[in-house]
Specification:
The complex is a heterodimer of chains A (about 230) and B (about 425). Chain A has five helices and seven strands. Chain A is of the alpha/beta class. The longest helix of chain A has 21 residues, at about 5-25. Chain B has helices at about 10-20, 75-80, 90-95, 100-115, 120-150, 155-175, 195-220, 225-230, 235-240, 250, 260, 285-305, 320, 330, 335-350, 390-395, 395-400, 405-415, 420-424, and strands at about 35-40, 45, 50, 55-60, 60-70, 185, 190, 355-365, 365-375, 380-385. In chain B, the strands form four sheets. In chain B, strands 1-4-5 form a three-stranded antiparallel sheet. In chain B, strands 8-9-10 form a three-stranded antiparallel sheet. A two-stranded antiparallel sheet of chain B has the order 2-3. In chain B, strand 4 (about 55-60) and strand 5 (about 60-70) form a beta hairpin. The chains are: A alpha/beta (about 230), B alpha+beta (about 425). The interface between A and B is large, with 61 and 61 residues. Chain A: This is NADH-quinone oxidoreductase subunit C. Chain A: One of its GO terms (molecular function) is NADH dehydrogenase (quinone) (non-electrogenic) activity.
């Protein structure tokens, strides 16, 4: 990243952090700058997230919730889930973007207060994040799955969920009863080639069909059977 | 799930019907006792523009409730992205908004380059803007044609396909493919412009503008089209912002926000163009915005052709770029060093430093954003795709409440979404 960007970014971030600390003194310790390659970014505590986001919308002109998502830092990490909001100013300071992030308190049953009351746009974004990561947004008016079917037991964007998918029941039990069919995970032998984050270590990071490459000789691991 | 769709006020309606049958009419009894019915529109319906299902509650011909059901085209693109190298994911971006794959390619590589801190030379940036604007024309043409067909006009659909075919022929010449172009690379583009291609784009623009005026004239003052769209599904400025609408759907509501102007990338600040905005925010305004945007895109394309910079179309040969950008093929085939470098980048992926970045590009359907979290190495840890169609569709329940059944078709056409983009 160019020095110019990082310098502006750092100045803007520290400005926002100072403003928020002043406005929310009870959470001041937990409002910290967040490392970012582009936009100013700030970490906030989950319990103050709604108040801070409302303040940013009303007082700083971030009228639009551009994006809402989560990051899973993998099993064993703590905090494991981080919810990320990208706010955009459209009319007051057009094009100014801000990233706000908050860690979920629990690693096994993550929760985050909903901002659907502030931006209706969050309604679907939160449903998607709940669907994909299993993060429960408390106070959401209608928290249901949106991309997968109701009753689907897994959260596919969690890191432990295999790329090939998992064996499961069909969405419609009537079809399953009639056809005796089940959803079967895709065998990954021969591709698509997957890669892992490696630091020029070819043995680890070279794209290949990974542990999901089962076949008749190499049966599927027990833990991937639904 | 084979669950029956029921509505809460059905019970009250039934009780009312029972009272009427028993002769105990209340004072405020309606003359006609209508019973609400539920209707699934889609997922395979010509007017839902792909696999979108609308669960409607109808009171006669009036829509009292509309719930979009999505996910029929969900392919897990984000999961796939987290399991392959940055370069391998380029072809997957074609499949997002498959009506403007070139624009998606550009948005994706710009996001990765932003995280990597990679600069591309002016010629590369100009080529990217050029193809993104051609993709905008192509996408808006189809949006125009299908909107016309949704509101009962068939001829515009045929006219736009004729023009779109010419664009696709140009794309094929440039990228080797008509639909899945996969043209850009992190740090450059796949190949330079073919000889004489710019001249052919210029010829296309010359003959396209009169055709565009002809096409727009077919609808703009068309009585039926105006009756179907004027004043229908008005989105106020506040709603457009609150629901996160972008692109022509936001500008149709009178907010002149355009990422190309307000957050310029790839040298958009050099080009002169106007950002059209609507006044009311109805279906007609959104149509007018797209029409004007096509004119403006032609304007940008002509400026690029006039001032196309010379020089390389790939990143400068710096130490940093060598770990990110695969060398051009002519170098790979003639120099051993470049061959080794090509092998390393192909197998391990471009070595992106740890960090987070979020980049939004102004795509034909609205702002397409990529949020990338990197832990270093050739594979992203997390990649979120902020698709414009997903945000657009979230306003449907509000828009469709109280309209007539046939208006829904016009509303869907005016929003111009694509399900590949929505479901990812």
């Amino acid at each position: 990243m160019s020095d110019a960007i990082s310098e502006t970014n750092t100045t803007a971030t520290s400005g926002i952090v100072a403003t928020l600390r002043e406005k929310f003194p009870q959470s001041a310790e937990k409002i910290t700058p967040r490392a970012s390659a582009d936009h100013p970014a700030v970490n906030v505590p989950a319990d103050a997230a709604v108040a801070i986001l409302t303040y940013l919308r009303d007082e700083h002109g971030y009228e639009m919730l551009s994006d809402l998502t989560a990051v899973d830092w993998a099993e064993g990490s703590s905090p494991r889930f981080t919810v990320v909001w990208h706010l955009l100013s459209v009319t007051i300071n057009p094009g100014v973007c801000l990233r706000v992030a908050a860690d979920c308190a629990s690693d096994t049953e993550p929760e985050m207060p909903s901002v659907a009351g502030i931006w209706p746009a969050a309604n679907w974004h939160e449903r998607e994040t709940f669907d994909m990561f299993g993060i429960v947004f408390t106070g959401h008016p209608d928290l249901r799955r949106i991309l997968m079917w109701d009753g689907y037991p897994h959260h596919p964007l969690r890191k432990e969920f295999p790329l090939a998918g998992m064996d499961d029941e069909l969405p419609d039990p009537e079809v399953e009863a009639e056809t005796k069919a089940r959803l079967v995970a895709a065998p990954m032998a021969g591709g698509p080639f997957v890669a892992s984050t490696g630091n020029l270590n070819l043995a680890e990071s070279e794209p290949r069909a990974k542990d999901q490459s089962w076949s008749e000789e190499n049966p599927k691991p027990e833990n991937l059977k639904g | 799930m084979a669950t029956e769709y029921t509505f809460q006020d059905n019970a009250a309606k039934n009780a009312s019907a029972a009272a009427v049958a028993a002769g105990h009419l209340p004072d405020d009894a309606p003359i006609f006792d209508t019973e609400k019915m539920s209707l699934s529109m889609g997922p395979s319906h010509p007017s839902t523009h792909g696999v979108l299902r609308l669960q409607l509650e109808l009171d006669g011909d009036d829509v009292s409730h509309c719930e979009p059901v999505i996910g029929y085209l969900h392919r897990g693109d984000e999961k796939i992205a987290e399991n392959m190298t940055y370069n391998q994911f380029v072809p997957y971006t074609d499949r997002l908004d498959y009506l403007a794959p070139l624009a998606n390619n550009v948005a994706y590589v710009l996001a990765v380059e932003k995280l990597a801190g990679l600069k591309v030379p002016p010629r590369c940036a100009a080529i990217r803007v050029l193809v993104a604007e051609l993709a905008r024309i192509s996408s808006h043409l189809l949006g125009y044609g299908s909107f016309a067909m949704d509101t009962g006009a068939w001829t515009p659909f045929l006219y736009q396909f004729t023009e779109r075919e010419k664009l696709y022929t140009l794309f094929e010449e440039l990228t080797g493919a008509r639909l899945t172009t996969s043209y850009t690379r992190i740090g450059g583009v796949t190949r330079d412009l073919p000889e004489g291609w710019l001249g052919r784009v210029s010829d296309f623009c010359d003959q396209f503008l009169p055709r565009l005026e002809e096409m727009l004239a077919m609808l703009t003052r068309n009585k039926i089209f105006m009756d179907r769209t004027v004043g229908v599904a008005v989105i106020s400025k506040e709603d457009a912002l609150a629901y996160g609408l972008t692109g022509p759907n936001l500008r149709g509501s009178g907010i002149g926000f355009d990422l190309r102007k307000d957050k310029p990338y790839s040298g958009y600040e050099q080009y002169e163009f106007d950002v059209p905005t609507g006044t009311v925010g109805d279906c007609y305004d959104r149509y007018l915005c797209r029409g004007e945007e096509m004119r403006q895109s032609v304007r940008i394309v002509r400026q690029i052709i006039k001032n196309m910079p010379d020089g390389p179309w790939y990143a400068d040969d710096t130490e940093e770029a060598r770990r990110i950008f695969a060398p051009p093929k002519d170098k790979v085939l003639t120099k051993m060093e470049e061959l080794i470098n090509n092998f390393m980048i192909t197998t391990t992926g471009p070595q992106i430093p740890p960090g987070e970045a979020y980049f939004e590009a102004e795509n034909p359907k609205g702002a397409l954003g990529f949020y990338i979290v990197s832990k270093g190495g050739g594979v992203p840890w997390r990649m979120k795709i902020r698709s414009p169609s997903f945000c657009t569709l979230s306003i449907l329940p509000k828009l469709c409440k109280g309209v007539m059944m046939t208006d829904i078709v016009a509303i869907l056409g005016s929003l111009d979404f694509v399900m590949g983009d929505c479901d990812r």
